[in-house]
Amino acid sequence: MTMADKPRVVLGVGGGIAAYKACELLRRLTESGHDVRVVPTASALHFVGEATWSALSGHPAGTEVWESVHEVPHVRIGQSADLVVVAPATADLLAKAAHGLADDLLTNTLLTARCPVVFAPAMHTEMWEHPATQENVATLRRRGCVVIEPAVGRLTGVDTGKGRLPDPQEIFEVSRRVLTRGPEAVRADLAGRHVVISAGGTREPLDPVRYLGNRSTGKQGYALARAAVARGARVTLVSANSELPAPAGADVVRVGTAVQLREAVLKAAADADAVVMAAAVADFRPAHYAPGKIKKRDGQEPEPVALVRNPDVLAEISAERARPGQIVVGFAAETDDVLVNGREKLARKGCDLLVVNEVGEHKTFGAEENEAVVLASDGAETPVPYGPKEVLAGRIWDLVAARFE
Predict the structure, then answer these.
(1) Catalytic residue status for 214
(2) Domain holding 267: CATH number?
(3) Quick one: which residues bind CTP (predicted)?
């Protein structure tokens, strides 16, 4: 790939302690074939020097509009970019971007860019939660920018809370998905929407050691979460027993059982525009929980395990929509008569869309690829051929966004 063929990315770096993590993001962008121009603020250079940015990117890393004025950098950099990523985005930078202030090269670049823009905020919890910051974030999202929710964790000093810069790998994944969507990403068709996604597989305890579970790893639900973040949504991910890293920008609620998942989904769905039930929720749970490990007795057969039904979360949220116009998407994992069983389930559950796929020991669960047919309540069928799970995730959001419109 020649330099002219490479996607052109502007990496804006704000003046926060997390600036050092942007070096890892820069490495991932350059090593994956992107031509990256780093535009730090003057404050950012107190944390990572200009020589480091220039060496890692292969381009000069200026901060002032008065440098190389014959090239008009404050206009040209933004005009020629395919994507602008700001990481870390400080409270000051978010405020300037929201109000159109342009007092350095980075803020000028943000004004001239006509490509998708991704902000990865990092600041103390109090600064993130301040009404001024929240209004600035809402303004940027309304304009089509993708503002990733900060992570929860250790901040500077002894403080912990929401405001930590998401993992650079996760910021890279969001950036890659935004670039993949191309010009459509400028519109951020899920901006201003709150979506709830369930992922993984529930586990129903039999005793302190054993449980009834399934093979779901959560990969499809996590792909849905990452895709929704890249399209501008506020994402709540209810994750059941998945070991996958938390997607950047998603608020992750971790649960274990079907009952816990129901409680978390109902709570999050109260103000959600869409709910996607991608988790494999157990239909049954043991009727009795043994407080001690069930022992194997020589010469004795084990007692039968009595089961009781778990709540049907998909049917419940479909029948009792938390708000008018809420869209509900279900998943149907079938082993035979896939479409016949899928159509019957769609009618029984009452959801708007049902993603039907065939599962088995070596199909779908744990795999990186998937294929499915998306059935709609109006009778439409959308086949999605075999391919990466993120492709299926994108197609599902296409169908959801069309219903919003």
Answers:
(1) yes
(2) 3.40.50.10300
(3) 283, 293, 311-314, 331, 345, 349
Q: Over the chain, what is the mean pLDDT?
A: 90
| 75: its two tokens | 């206009």
Q: Determine whether the annotation assigns residue 311 to a binding site.
A: yes
Structure tokens at 87: 């990481």
Q: What is the pLDDT of residues 77-133, one digit of tens each?
A: 888 899 999 999 999 999 999 999 999 999 999 999 999 999 999 999 999 999 999
CA-to-CA separations, 5 to 33, 112, 186, in angstroms, rounded: 9, 22, 21
Catalytic residue from among 214, 310, 357, 370: 214
CATH number at residue 162: 3.40.50.1950
Report the domain count for the chain.
Answer: 2
Exposed / middle / buried, residue 181 (Cβ in 10 Å: 0-12, 13-18, 19+): middle
SS3 201: strand
* 96 and 199 co-located in one domain: no
**3-state SS class at 169:** helix
Question: Residue 48 corresponds to which tokens in the numbers above?
Answer: 């990572």
Backbone phi, psi, residue 77, to 5°: -60, -45
312 is annotated as contributing to ligand binding: yes
Confirm or deny that 82 is annotated as ligand binding: no
